Amino acid sequence: MPLVTALMTTYNASRWVEDTITSILEQTFDDFEFLIIDDASTDDTVETIRRFSDSRIKLIANSRNRGVGHCLNQALSFVKTPYVAKVDADDISVPTRFEEQLRFLVENEFDIVKSYLSYFADDAKVQVSERFNQFKNKKEVLLNDIRHPHDIEATLLDWPCFPHTTYFGKADLIKKVGYPSLRMFEDYVLFLRLLKGGYKFGCVEKVLVNMRVSNSSITASLSENALGEGLSCVVDEKWNRLSLGLQGKSLFVFGTGQMAKAFARIMIGRGVNVSGFVESSPIAETVNVGNDAFPILTLKLFLAKTNAFLVIAAQPVREEISTLLRERNLSNSHDFFVLA
Q1: Cross-strand bridge partners of residue 119
Q2: How far apart are the first and last CA of the chain?
Q3: How many domains does the chain have?
Q4: Domain containing residue 66
């Protein structure tokens, strides 16, 4: 039996999957099987995978699209090896990734480890986009800076600082905890559950995965229902801290995008009153959630309120807003809360 299972799910990834598979097959550590679950792709993904003749590849092509969380749980049911290395279908692993992560995990007695990452642009248009600039010059630096076990564990309570595509971990623990059957946030919920279980997180301080940036947004492409289901599961995992911070305070939501609106719907569904939304520079006076219109406050107006609790539901600015709030002597989980 091999020592490692490289685990990948695919869906309409024919543009990139050949390069991704090649990067795995060229690993310096070669005692692995490569388990691929295809989620009923409608392009040439399956045909591209089948062109590889390497016996380590085990492909399961589903006939019905069920979402990434379902496919990951399906994949875990086939894992018999002691370790699992996660692979995303559009990213590139460096040749020594498995070798270095396995050695680091064993020598330091961690349960699951990530690595540094480097973002690269999908094409020339992406290369000059603001989206890529944000990922390369801000997100990459921030993610790689969160490397010590204490920092990883503390930050995971707020947001997914442990990139899914970079993890290498003990298979029995990941199988025990499992993925929720979600189309979004399945990775973050897994890590929150591992964190709750007291498992040890670490980081190999080298770039071992190159992550592709395209102009598409996963959040924007999901249905309202899929986003709501994923976010509701995150709220479930964080509910004890969130409800404690809310006690006796008015709830405001920072952001007016899909995630912020989805969070508001979840809270209203749980019987929690939403007092309004907050933006640094609002371009409208109200935001509609369902049949109701809620006021949008400037951050300055929010800060003038008493007994108010702010949930940050805008991922691109969560660090900026969190820092600003801390500079004003507001504390995480008591005065504000980072959703994801």
Answers
A1: 211
A2: 38
A3: 2
A4: 4-216
Residues 231 and 144 in one domain: no
CATH number of the domain where residue 290 is located: 3.40.50.720
Contact yes or no for 115/166 (Cβ under 8 A): yes
* Backbone torsions φ then ψ of 93, nearest 5 degrees: -90, 140
Last residue of a domain, one of 181, 216, 251: 216
Mode of pairing for the β-strands spanning 168-170 and 112-121: antiparallel
216 band by pLDDT with thresholds 50, 70 and 90: low
pLDDT beyond 80 at 223: no
Question: In this predicted model, what pLDDT tens digit does every residue of 10-63 receive, in sequence order?
Answer: 999 999 999 999 999 999 999 999 999 999 999 999 999 999 999 999 999 999
Question: Tokens standing for 163?
Answer: 């990139």
**Sheet of 112-121, strands arranged across:** 57-61, 32-38, 4-10, 83-88, 168-170, 112-121, 201-213, 92-93
Who contacts 22 (Cβ-Cβ below 8 Å, separation ≥6)? Answer: none
Residues 226 and 202 in one domain: no
Residue matched to tokens 């807003």 = 321
d(CA 82, CA 32): 10
* Residues 213, 266 contacting (CB under 8 angstroms): no
